[in-house]
Amino acid sequence: MLLSPRSSCALPTAIRIASYTWPTNAASRGKFRVFTFSKYNSRCLHRRRNCKRRMAMTSSAHDVRFDSYSMLVEERHETDWYEWCVFVDGDAETLSRIAFVQYTLHPTFSEPVRLCVDREHQFALFSAGWGGFNISITVSWNDSEVTQHQYFLDLWKGRWPRPSEPQLIGDEKLVYSVIRDGRTRWRKERTIGRVSGVTNHDLQNALASLQNQNAIRRHYVRSIDGENLWGATALVGIAPSPDSDVSPMPA
Predict the structure, then answer these.
(1) Residue 7 in contact with residue 13, Cβ under 8 Å?
(2) What is the pLDDT of residues 46-73, one digit of tens each?
(3) 113, 171, 183, 249: most buried, per Cβ within 10 A?
(4) Both ends of the chain: CA-CA distance in Å?
(5) Closest CA to 72 of 125, 131, 114
(6) Residue 105: alpha-carbon gap to chain centroid
(7) Model confidence, pTM
(8) What's the rounded Cα separation, in Å, for the pair 127 and 244?
């Protein structure tokens, strides 16, 4: 069976030439051979160029960078212990095209594979540890593309942004003063309500308002008894956000 002249340029040259009727005249055969090779070489080159263009467009449309914050918080077993977060370093337009981000941490973590869908906070992953390591990152885009990335977590660069102390009044001031009293970095929600003396309804309103002002943030884990933990961002740092106007701390 003869192959069509439109067959893939990946086919062997001999098979492609056999797809044409071979001229009987010797001179014509030479011209035909040159024509055949030239035609297919041109077609292959055109396809390769188109393929490279498509790959370049895909790469450009899915370019993404990552960044991290870290903060030395204490010493455990004579080893420095850091809280850290890694996140997508992109603007709102880039973040809007991402469906979710999967981080694969060092195998010594109890749950090394973490899925993040929090676009508001740049798909940030929060955790803690004592040493830096390489993170494998999979980004799933809204157009069904999936890209693979690597990021080295450098705990020693620090730079976690911390805002100045807010000016507050009323219940917000009472609640914030309990969270920021300096005895501990994170306070249980029930403890905040008990010490501040506000009702649960007023407590929830104050926490929501303070969170919207970037004055506090909730811990990524709960307490042993399942309660929310809250920290003052002037102490524990803010959560990453494309709209944040707080500059990173000097390294």
Answers:
(1) no
(2) 555 554 444 434 456 788 999 999 999 9
(3) 171
(4) 71
(5) 131
(6) 13
(7) 0.70
(8) 21
